[in-house]
Amino acid sequence: MEPDEIVGIMLAGRRSSRMGGGVKCLQSLGGKPMLAHVLARLRPQVSDIVISANSDGFAGFGLPVVADSVAGFQGPLAGIEAGLTWVAANRPRATWVVTVPGDTPFIPGDLVRRLANADRAAGTMVVARSETGVHPVVGLWPVTMAVDLRAALASGLRKVSRWAEMQGAAEVFFPPSEIGGRAVDPFFNINRKEDLAAAEGLLKREPEPS
């Protein structure tokens, strides 16, 4: 699988009700939006990136922004379908996408390579696993899955985990990352103010790559 066959879909639509409101991934972390840290880690691993979001505030990133085709803010599965459909129409060389949430600032530098090299059947999607469990929104998806996913959304399916189970998704285990001598879940996601403070402390131990 060549790099130009893989596009990144940044899932940036989550709200931060437990952090005072607003779009979570636009909260400041280390002096810049949280999303900027995730993008810095993902950019070297893919050919292109598209942001999946249903709100404003992303123009400054210089990337395509795609809104859900399903009304009513139906969650990350709808965002993934919108991203897959956009890639199929606008990046015809790409046959796969990798999905990453915008609130996971410490994703591994070898995330895409390891997902792409997973032992799996042809055309099967792949999801990440760590010591804290399976992370179905961190995964590798065939672009051709867009049509079936759209039909599933129309039937009422909303859980990414359920869709992954239905597809027989392969799993790739990622061990803890070491940051400043501390073991950190590579898919540590920021949900609360305490998580944001912990992430700030980790960034001081290991600055985000530029």
SSE topology sketch:
Blueprint: E1 6-11, E2 28-29, E3 32-33, H1 34-42, E4 48-52, E5 65-66, H2 76-90, E6 96-101, H3 111-116, E7 126-130, E8 133-142, H4 146-154, H5 160-166, E9 170-173, E10 177-179, E11 182-184, H6 193-205
Parallel strand pairs: 1-4, 1-6, 4-5, 7-9
Antiparallel strand pairs: 2-3, 6-8, 7-8, 10-11
Helix pairs in contact: 2-4
Structural shape: globular
What's the pLDDT, averaged over the residues? 90
H/E series, N to C? EEEHEEHEHEEHHEEEH
Amount of beta strand = 15-25%
What's the Cα radius of gyration?
16 Å
So what's the CATH class?
Alpha Beta
Number of domains: 1
- Strand pairing plus helix content: what structural class? alpha/beta
CA-CA gap between termini:
26 Å
Low-confidence residue ranges: none
Q: Please tally the helical runs, counting DSSP H or I stretches of 4 or more residues.
A: 6
Percent range for helical residues? Answer: 25-40%
CATH topology-level name: Spore Coat Polysaccharide Biosynthesis Protein SpsA, Chain A
Number of strand segments: 11
Taking strands numbered 1, 2, ... along the chain, how are they ordered across the largest sheet? 5-4-1-6-8-7-9
Describe the main β-sheet briefly: 7 strands, mixed
Task: Please tell me the CATH architecture by its name.
Answer: Alpha-Beta Complex
* CATH superfamily descriptor: Spore Coat Polysaccharide Biosynthesis Protein SpsA, Chain A
